[in-house]
Amino acid sequence: MSFGERGKRHRHPLTADLFPPNRLPQAGYTEIQIANIKQDLNRNLKLREIIRQASGETIDLKAYEADMRHLIDTYIEADAPKAISDFGEIGLLELM
């Protein structure tokens, strides 16, 4: 089924990106069809998250946040920037 067919129910998870909700009525979709698209989208997004968690593709970094901040604050420093060439007010595009 193509995305451009009017009056058809779309089950593609990217429908919201291709047809933003505020433009669906302009594309010829009825309120019932819009509700079905939103429902399908939400179901697919939840399913994607369940699959990510089950496959171990997500990492919850909240548990490590305090330790990472401590390491960054303790061991990472930045010196003040120093000019290596005098380009003045010339922009990067002009320089190239």
Structure, described:
The structure is a single chain. The chain is an all-alpha fold and 96 residues long. The protein has one domain. It is 46% helix and 0% strand. The relative contact order is 0.08.
Features:
96 residues, mainly alpha, flat, disordered N terminus
Distance between the termini: 48 Å
Average pLDDT value? 77
Broad structural category: mainly alpha
Overall outline: flat
**Biggest sheet character:** none
- State the low-pLDDT regions, or none: 1-11
**How many domains, in number, for the residues?**
1
Number of strands: 0
Percentage of residues in helical conformation: 40-55%
Radius of gyration, in Å, reads 25 Å
Q: If helices are DSSP runs of H or I spanning 4 or more residues, what is the number of helices? A: 4
Order of helices and strands, N to C?
Answer: HHHH
Strand content: under 5%
